[in-house]
Structure formats: structure tokens, C-alpha cells
Amino acid sequence: MKWLLVLLTVFAFTAAAADVTGTWKGTAETENGTIERTFVFKVDGTKLTGETTSSLFGKSTITDGKIEGDNLSFTISVKYEDNEIKLNYTGKVSGDTMKLHVEVPGRPVVDYTAKKVS
Questions:
Q1: Contact 67, 43 (CB under 8 A)
Q2: pLDDT of 48 strictly over 90
Q3: Mean per-residue pLDDT, 21-28
Q4: CB–CB of 53/37 below 8 Å?
């Protein structure tokens, strides 16, 4: 019985999601220069929601978000030249730093580094 309790405790600590709730500021270097984006995350269990803002695309709602351990993924929709484009984000959290990879249809992958600000 004692070993079962120890195993359950260890599992609970390893399965816990990283705390990304709050505001994060990110930058990405692209062929067109540096892009800045602010992320405001909310977490409920493994569900990730919130919004994100950039000077290039304005405000977008985070959809299909999930966080498992230190890994997260979500989608946002942006409007570009009268077209709605879905951007798929995947990433990993390490303390107050987040590395995000963004898949943009027909474009190279964009890599963001974000830091927690609140």
C-alpha cells in the first residue's frame, strides 16, 4: 500500500501542467524583421484559452488549446489581405521562458521566444 501511495504521488508531480497562466511577451525573427506578440493565457486543467495581440495582426482568440506537462499547443486565426489564416502553435515551457513554433500555411515555420511578464 505504501508503494502505491509513493507511485501515485510521483505520477501526480510529473503529470502536472506547467503554470502558463498570465501574460507573456514574445519575439520572433523573420525574413521581414522582428515580430512581437503578447499572449494572455488562462488554464483550466489541460485546457488552454486566452488571447494574443500583435501590431501586425491585432487581437486573436486562442482556440483548440491544450497543455500537457511542459508542452502546449493552440491555434489562432488572423486576417491577412482579406483572408482568414489559421496559425498553429506548438511549444514547450521552461520556467518563465516559452519556445513556440508557428506553422503558417505556405510560409516557413516561425519560432518565438516568450518571457512571462505577469
A1: yes
A2: yes
A3: 97
A4: yes
| Euclidean distance between CA atoms 46 and 115, whole angstroms | 21
The DSSP result for the chain, as a single string, is -HHHHHHHHHHHHHHPPP---EEEEEEEEETTEEEEEEEEEEEETTEEEEEEEETTTEEEE-EEEEEETTEEEEEEEEEETTEEEEEEEEEEEETTEEEEEEE-TTS--EEEEEEE--
pLDDT at 31 over 90: no
Q: What CA–CA distances, in Å, run from 68 to 4, 46, 59, 73?
A: 23, 6, 25, 9
Question: Rg of the chain's alpha carbons, rounded to an integer?
Answer: 16
Domains and CATH numbers, the chain: 18-116 (2.40.128.20)
